[in-house]
Amino acid sequence: MSAPEAGPRRTTPPVVRSAACISHADPAMSLGALPHAEEVLAVCAHPDDESFGLGAVLPAFAAQGAKVRVLCFTRGEASTLGETELSLGEVRAEELRAAACVLGIRDVELLSYPDGRLADLPLGELAGLVEDAIAGADLLLVFDSGGITGHPDHCRATEAALEAANRRRVPVLAWALPEDVAGRLNTEFATSFVGRGVTDLDITVEVDRELQRAAISCHATQSHDNPVMRRRLELLGGREYLRWLSCYPGSASA
Asked: What is the pTM of this model?
């Protein structure tokens, strides 16, 4: 469980979804339709989030010609997976760099906030770092609100991205899970995945998981014994699902 937040809590900006964002009547209607973006900034909590979660979508954006960058808040040192005589945080930093090369990520900014404690930190502080990292990005890519797995760090990273995007008026696109996939995982593994119904999913994209699987293998400390992740990829097959958390007229989402 996350500890109480230090300092006054700032309200996460409301979800703003213009008509240009909406294509969710039937996910098949927008099959394969990633939005155009010149530069995508993925905001993550941990090394491996860019691969385990976003690892099929990021190279798809790169294949469209987008410059792809990653901002990662922690070094993942609190993970209970992976045994190493070296500092786990340093090992995972190297794993992230290797995976980024595989996925076509041009730049990685890896911060050193404490793993498992992002929710303790002032939202404004984290949002300021995202805002600084936005630079020329015209699209932010994040985990869905609820953090996909319910992890407090995932939730906080998305909250920070939303606040920064609200200040800079940059659209935010979230990687999401269909509720049937989340339900199966929760039943089989007693997990807490957060799924979305058809009307909440804006884009369904066909993906090639070859690069994602290669990037996952770069995270050797985290992928060796991870049946939940492998089952998720099996259930998703060759598709990923996305939803707009915020967008603005004339932005990448329009």
From this structure: 0.86
Range of the domain at 83: 28-246
Better-predicted residue by pLDDT, 249 or 140: 140
Phi, psi of 201 (to 5 degrees): -100, 120
For 83, phi and psi rounded to 5 degrees? -115, 130
8 A C-beta contact, residue 168 and residue 135: no
Evaluate whether 5 touches 121 at the Cβ level (below 8 Å).
yes
First to last CA, the chain: 38
Q: Is residue 192 a part of any domain in this protein?
A: yes
Side-chain half-sphere CA neighbours of 163 within 13 A: 19
pLDDT digit string, tens, across residues 108-146: 999 999 989 999 999 999 999 999 999 999 999 999 999
H or E element, residue 204: strand 203-206
Q: How many folded domains does the chain comprise? A: 1
